[in-house]
Known about the structure:
Elements: E1 10-11, E2 13-17, E3 24-29, E4 37-38, E5 40-43, H1 50-58, E6 60-65, E7 80-87, H2 89-95, H3 98-107, E8 109-113, H4 114-119
Parallel strand pairs: 2-5, 6-8
Antiparallel strand pairs: 1-4, 2-3, 6-7
The chain binds zinc ion.
Zinc ion (ZN) binds near residues 25, 49 and 52.
Amino acid sequence: MDWIIMIGELSHVGMNTCYFCNEPSEILIDRRLKKTLPRNIGVMNMRPCTKCEDLMKQGILLISIKNDTQMQGPIPNPYRTGGWVIIKQEAIERMLDGDFLKFALKYRFMFINDEAWDAMGLPRNEIHPD
Ligand SMILES: [Zn+2]
């Protein structure tokens, strides 16, 4: 489902952000005469950008989130804490079972809270200034 939150100056053109990597992913053009699109829309849908789509074909995307994050809204957007990795499907099949495994294989991504992230020994994508 697509959705837009109207904030700030409106335009005929807007930019969607990829739900998974937060990079600009799609240019949106309003075909009506009235300006209805915010210039910087943010996340508008859960379609992965081409980069994420390609990576999600190769494995399962794991994204770290804050421990007490609640999943709410039409597009849940939990507080992300910087962990972002692609895990081979064979590894996920060894790590998970039941509904978690079914979800991972169907949607090709999972949010993992920080406690579980660290327990699994997954790497942090820390940015070092030098
Ligand atoms: Zn992406």
